[in-house]
Amino acid sequence: MVLKLYGSLTAAVMRVYCILLEKNVPFELIPVDLRKGENRTPEYLAKQPFGQIPCIDDDGFVLFESRAICHYIATKYAHQGPDLIPQDLEKNALYQQWASVEAFQFETKAVGVVTEAFYKPVFWGQEKNQTLYDEHLDKLGKTLDVYETVLSKQKYLVGDELTMVDLNHLPYAMLLGARGGTNIMQDESRPNVVRWFNELSSRDSWKAVLAKLAEQQQ
Hints:
The chain is built from nine helices and four strands. The chain is an alpha+beta fold. Strands 2-1-3-4 form a four-stranded mixed β-sheet, with helices on one face.
């Protein structure tokens, strides 16, 4: 039975979609329309009790939380597509380190920027708080200053080989420009961050994610 990915192409769903493509895993995208409350039906809540997206059903094995799903996919299909999780003890520890940074340093600040610039005025009917926006953007810039230092010495965050940690940045890194009103990922004062982001966003998997997103928005 083909793996089923439930959700519309939000940032979290795009993260999983990208990893499935990287690992060449056949799957079916099952739309879940949040605006219609499809995430609150008894059938969906039986799979994802918090009513969030995404979740997957892999031949009866149900899992939610995008990073957990990505880890499951990359582990199950370790010998298919690029190796995205280092097996060496020290490299894996560095991988876990940067996974925490991505989730709790990068994304939390990026979400703050996009929330003020886009989610609040467009979806919630609230005014943008410019002070909060500037604070989130400043904190994100300081985080990316650290990235710049690291990426000046190596190709990717964990070393010179691509890992899932790099790819997990893509959804909100893209949204910062598309919905966050900032070109911070293309800031020439951080040339290595620009190089890193441009390389990641040029991968065929991510191009396919964006093509699917454009198709859904038509």
